[in-house]
């Protein structure tokens, strides 16, 4: 299918490396972004990075306003918007994991200003993408927004974050394998627009990460570097596609449904990783690549079973059989799985 026009929105300055946090002001000034920022952060990220960012801008004569967020909700987005308007700020800086960064992304979009992403955890590709995700009313709203104008990913900080957040980021990337397969399937069966460039980039990102699994080890700063580069690359794939398709297929539907059934039971990346094992089995059967996905997840220490996710068997089956209802996105789940088929997929792959 031929797209008549595309609009690819990308971050412009992406800083990755040791102590790059100290260069946040530089990354912003280089974009000619001037005036007073609002820092949106959480309790822990504030200590880890937010206070240092605040001091940098204060030293340049732009004392930032600040708002602390502790939950991902539309009410929290509104609080960020209110704080920005009250303090009359010019742009926003999100400092933290996915929660503060998503809230910043959505508020910046609503306010029509730019925002800078300063991740303190490499937990999923939302820290660099133009997608935001907020759970509300028992469902998950995944919305399109502008990506950050700059990303400042300090590998020293990311390497010090709890290891499980990093393994979640890895699993989110590994799930690109099945996301791309679902996208191609949707093209064949539903004539959905498929971007060769975006699909190839998303898949290659997962392959490179798996090839480097040996250098992804707790305590190694290089791990944070490898993972962040992959998260950036995956974010670019989504920007090229103009949707989350290259990084979100049936394994994400499964995870979103788990979020609805058992909120906060496990991390997003860990859920999509386990989902990806089963979805690969659905695509390719007993002799497909599902063992490769499982082994890649195990190699970096991400969960591969329902037990390791801390989620019971019945919930896994319910999520699998109802995941297709989550959103209008054609995947291998089609119009839904029967309970026996879901049980077989989960049992054969050792998820339950
Ligand atoms: N945009 C997208 O595509 C996607 C967005 N999401 C959204 O992202 C959120 C989940 O992201 P996630 O990053 O897991 O969650 P959080 O931002 O909630 O971070 C997880 C926990 O880690 C803490 N934390 C963050 N950085 C550090 C650090 N350096 N050291 C120690 N602790 C740290 C946080 O503290 P504190 O609570 O103090 O902030 C929080 O308790 C959800 O809101 C989800 O909806 C999920 C998937 C995709
Ligand atoms: O998590 C994502 C990609 O990894 C975003 O996808 P969604 O559009 O399913 O929220
Ligand atoms: Zn994801």
Automatic annotation (TrEMBL):
GO biological process: glycerophospholipid metabolic process; phospholipid biosynthetic process
Cofactor binding: number and manner: Binds 1 zinc ion per subunit.
Function: Catalyzes the NAD(P)H-dependent reduction of dihydroxyacetonephosphate (DHAP or glycerone phosphate) to glycerol 1-phosphate (G1P). The G1P thus generated is used as the glycerophosphate backbone of phospholipids in the cellular membranes of Archaea.
Principal subcellular localisation of the protein: cytoplasm
Pathway note: Membrane lipid metabolism; glycerophospholipid metabolism
Organism listed in the record: Halorhabdus utahensis (strain DSM 12940 / JCM 11049 / AX-2)
CDD domains: Gro1PDH
One Pfam family cited in the UniProt record for this chain: Fe-ADH_2
Residues holding glycerol: 125, 172, 252, 268
InterPro entries cross-referenced by the UniProt entry: G1P_dehydrogenase_arc, G1PDH, Glycerol_DH
Chain positions recorded as substrate binding sites: 125, 172, 256
Protein name as it appears in the record: Glycerol-1-phosphate dehydrogenase [NAD(P)+]
């Amino acid at each position: 299918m031929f797209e008549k026009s595309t609009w690819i929105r990308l971050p412009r300055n992406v800083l990755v490396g040791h102590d790059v946090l100290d260069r946040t002001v530089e990354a912003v000034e280089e974009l000619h972004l001037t005036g007073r920022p609002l820092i949106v952060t959480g309790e822990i990220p504030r200590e880890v990075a937010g206070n240092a960012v605040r001091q940098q801008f204060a030293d340049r004569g732009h004392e930032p306003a600040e708002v602390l967020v502790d939950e991902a909700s539309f009410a929290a987005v509104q609080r960020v918007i209110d704080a920005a308007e009250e303090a009359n700020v010019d742009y926003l800086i999100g400092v933290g994991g996915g929660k503060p960064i998503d809230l910043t992304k959505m508020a910046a979009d609503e306010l029509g200003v730019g925002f800078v992403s300063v991740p303190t955890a490499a937990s999923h590709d939302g820290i660099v993408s133009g997608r935001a995700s907020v759970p509300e009313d028992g469902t998950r709203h995944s919305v399109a927004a502008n990506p950050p104008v700059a990303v400042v990913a300090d590998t020293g900080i990311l390497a010090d974050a709890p290891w499980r957040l990093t393994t979640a980021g890895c699993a989110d990337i590994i799930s690109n394998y099945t996301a791309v397969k679902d996208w191609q399937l949707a093209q064949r069966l539903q004539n959905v627009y498929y971007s060769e460039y975006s699909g190839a980039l998303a898949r290659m990102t997962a392959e490179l990460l798996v090839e480097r699994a040996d250098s992804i080890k707790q305590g190694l700063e290089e791990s944070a570097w490898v993972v962040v580069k992959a998260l950036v690359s995956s974010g670019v794939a989504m920007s090229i596609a103009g949707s989350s398709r290259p990084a979100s297929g049936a394994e994400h539907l499964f995870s979103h449904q788990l979020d609805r059934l058992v909120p906060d039971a496990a991390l997003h990346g860990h859920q999509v990783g386990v989902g990806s094992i089963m979805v690969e089995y659905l695509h390719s059967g007993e002799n497909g690549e599902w063992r490769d996905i499982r082994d890649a997840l195990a190699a970096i220490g991400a969960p591969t079973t329902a037990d390791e996710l801390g989620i019971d068997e019945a919930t896994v089956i319910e999520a699998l059989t109802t995941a297709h209802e989550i959103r209008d996105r054609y995947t291998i789940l089609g119009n839904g799985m029967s309970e026996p088929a879901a049980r077989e997929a989960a049992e054969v792959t050792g998820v339950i």
